[in-house]
Amino acid sequence: MGSNWVGVKVFANDKVALIPPSFDEKSSSLVKNALAVETLRVDVISSELHGVMIAGNNNGVLFPWNVDDDELSAVKKGYDLNVGQLQTNYTALGNLILANSFFALVYEGFDRETVKHISDVLGVEVERGRIGQYTTVGSLAVVTDRGLVLPPSVSDDEIRELGQKFRVRGDTATVNIGFNYLRLGLVANSFGALAGEASTGPELVNIERALALNQQ
Question: Options 3.75.10.10, 3.40.50.300, 3.30.70.980, 3.40.50.2300; which CATH number does 6-139+182-197 get?
Fold first, then answer.
């Protein structure tokens, strides 16, 4: 793919990876092989920011309000997923929602109606909050149904607390030679992960451990 920012460009769960229409076959195959799921090209406001714009888990996927209905239909028809749109001024949903199949932590500025809609589509309990001092919880961490990876600035107590809520074990890592906003440089599901090209060997080992990808 030739990018440090794979998490910006790709959304994935355990059923599908949503990629920009501009991805060539080599990039699509790289995503498919790394995450062991099908890829689906979807036009999200003519951007390549799928990881930033889309949020979800294995139950459902959330898109910004201004995504075309045809693109939503392609996801609905192809996969057993709830598909919804958030009617808010916020479009960077991937930066504001951190979710797996058990829990979702979301931007503290969302109102009650938005939180309820998130819960309905994703089928999980939703809590507004921060990770450490950071409000963009979706950009800071990556969670799957197997593990949770957080930046080293997060305290041990918060790692344990978040791990309990998401029902997985949490651990710390960085991407792209010390970058803390993990989601921007990392996309993952229960089967695999794809990290930015600049990520070092030790970073990849830490990510693999945190997401429990080395366990059978």
Answer: 3.75.10.10
